[in-house]
Amino acid sequence: MRRKIAAGNWKMNTLLNEGVTLAEELNTLLDGIELYDDKRVVIAVPYTHISSIINVVDYKKIAVAAQNCSQFDNGAYTGEISALMLKSIGVQYIIVGHSERRQIFGETDDIVSQKLTQCYKNAIFPILCCGESLNERESVKHLEIVGTQIKNALQNVDTFNIQRTIIAYEPIWAIGTGRTATPEQAQEMHAHIRNTIADLYTKEIANEITILYGGSVNAANSANLFAKEDIDGGLVGGASLKVNEFMQIIESL
Length: 253
Ligand code: PEP
Prior knowledge:
This protein is an alpha/beta fold. 42% of the residues lie in helices and 16% in strands. An 8-stranded parallel beta barrel has the order 1-2-3-4-5-6-7-8, surrounded by 5 helices. β2, α2 and β3 form a beta-alpha-beta unit. α1 runs parallel beside α12 and α7 packs across α9. The two termini are 16 Å apart. Bound molecules: phosphoenolpyruvate. The site of phosphoenolpyruvate has 14 residues, from β8. Phosphoenolpyruvate binds next to β8.
């Protein structure tokens, strides 16, 4: 089902006590807000914080996500965390294929595809990230690059599981840079992603997919971005660490 989602990605920020306080504050601020099934607030917090935060937030208002998972089931993979482990502590969403994981940790489209499989096996909603570099945009290859990322990631995804997938378009040049895609640039890419899904599956399925925009979303630009026809909300990094600003972004949904 296509939903409006404001998802915060805390990345490797906050100590446990700070993270719990931030989540509690957000939970309190959301008291006055009606969130129906078609609108969701998600926070992707560090692994170390997940259990504590799940205990202090109202699951009807805030879904807790992980920022990554292993592509493997279990076994001799020192330092890894499986999707099943995350499921066992109440995680509902996992960010998969964030550009920081692709660029810094060498995640390929194939690894991203295996991580998606792990999410589906464990009934977790993946938030699949895609996005082009500045160089790729400047050489006008951005539509092709993102289309290929989507096709590669979805290579093993059937019509049932695609409907449980959230996509986040995050141009790499806009992440953490303060430089946001214009609403028109973002809309162009979101429409392209939706058309790519329509080609791979059906137009009806493509219309039901939630596609988020990420890249320097803040309280000042979120409403204009979210007003675009194919933009169903945001994946928000830096601004999700400031509770009042994140609330304004949620309100602009
Ligand atoms: C992100 O981490 O996915 C992100 C979009 O970060 P920021 O909002 O800080 O650009």
